[in-house]
Structure prediction request, 562 residues.
Amino acid sequence: MKSYRMTAPGHPLRTLLIAGAGLAVLLILGLVFPSPWLRDTMTSLFASGLLAMSLHLLVGYSGLVSFGHAAYFALGGYVFGMTLQAPGYVETFGAWSLPSAMLLAMFGTGGAAFLVGLVCARLSEIYFAFLTLAFQMLFLSLIQGFVGYTGGDQGLTGGIPRPAFLGINVTQSWDRYAFCATVFVFGVLVIRLITESSFGFTLRMLRDNEARVKFLGINTYLTKVICFTLAGTLASLGGVILAIFTSAAYPEWASWTKSGEAIFMIMLGGVNTFLGPLAGALAMRIIDDVTLLYTTHTELAKGIVILFVVLVLKRGILDFALDRRRSRADRRANRDRAAAHEKERADVDS
Amino acid sequence: MLTLDHVVKRFGGVVATNDVSLTFPNESLSAIIGPNGAGKTTLFNLITGHLVPTSGSIRFEGDEIAGMKPAAIVRKGIGRAFQVASIFGSLTVEQSLAVAVTAHERRAFSLGGAFRNHTIRRRTEELVDLLQLNHVAQRISGEISHGDQKLLDVGLALALRPKLLLLDEPAAGMGPDERWQMMDTVKRLWKSENMTLIFIEHDIDLVFQTPR
Prediction:
């Protein structure tokens, strides 16, 4: 028998090139259509897209349903905003204030996610989900309680200073759009590299069969903690984008409904495809905007669409499209096999 | 290599294993025989750390392993396949074997591209050949036949290059011909991998006619 040869893995350079092409498309889109509406819509989509895609690392790749993921999105926005509003910060760091505040937001949120992960990863399934929700409520209470620092119910208003750096002035529409698009593509690229890494496949194993993973000598607790930390850190980038965009941060970002929205985005776009959550975020945005042309009952429209997806498609939009493509390919392969078989028989008969 | 000394496991008032003392020599092929409910799988669960013995000692290569976590026991060199194939249903067969090899190579947490390492690829290819899973290597594990899933389960354990391999009813749920084929495969693996192999079976004919 011929020795087996394993399928060649995709080259990481290909992923980098695709990310570069994606960024180029977003920048060209912003240049060709310089409408403030498009740029603003896209920027808020970058934020919600990163929230959904980072949650997908937990829900889709690891099988860990977190009900409290928005806490890290909000934490990113708040740490970023509070750092830049801190007296003397901008004067001290000057042009590097914004990037350093971004890094602080990422690492600060990552640290918080790590500590919460240490506790939550001890549990699984519904207990894990509700514990993440409990921590989200705790974060929300802290945001609402420390009025002097966070602005309480009013949010972090008064404007976040956003000094220009390297010639990029995010107070201007084009610069802001281009910068947020770059941060978004960077976030998506990091998520992609994680999912295609050895660790990404460990996460898939965890989702499929946690008990078996233990019998491969892998520490499943540590795997969950690392995944939780990475997902929280990447969600914070979404919060930073929204804080840059709104020049503020609001407690609603840390509410359980925001986490619910992210889960809806994943369900709507598809759990089994990498870009599913992004497609879900886009679909949610379209539903919101189209509904608002006629009525303010956006939640009703979302509910109807989700019912349609769950009851009729029985899977997310991209999952549905992928399954259709696969079944078409299977049918074509079966037809080809049957035709080859018929030809063989005809040759034998003749 | 493996020594069980007066091992007892109680679940409340039920005694699942009662004062079991056994020794399995290095590179031996052994079977544990008994009717359903005799405590065979419980014994495997005790050896692999899934359960903690109520009393008694389990020593592997001289080290006490009773009460250790399954992952730590695996790292000592004990692999296991299950009565109901325990696989990763959404991964392809080659991906499943490759991730198991990756785990053995201590790269499960690596953020580098998956399956790019030459050693991992070569060992995965070896396993596919050894288990004769070439025809399903690129198919989703959850969609292949029961017999192939059982082989894959064995492959996941073999990927760890175990010194001791425990197979829980490797031929369970198979037709008569498939059962003999499976036992031939077990014997072939035992010889080629130079390991100690213990399997559970309740069909005495199958055990005594599996040539050593």
The helical segments of chain B are 40-47, 70-76, 93-104, 118-130, 146-158, 176-193, 204-208. The CA atoms of residues 49 and 68 of chain B lie 6 Å apart. Chain B touches chain A through 46 residues (CB under 8 Å).
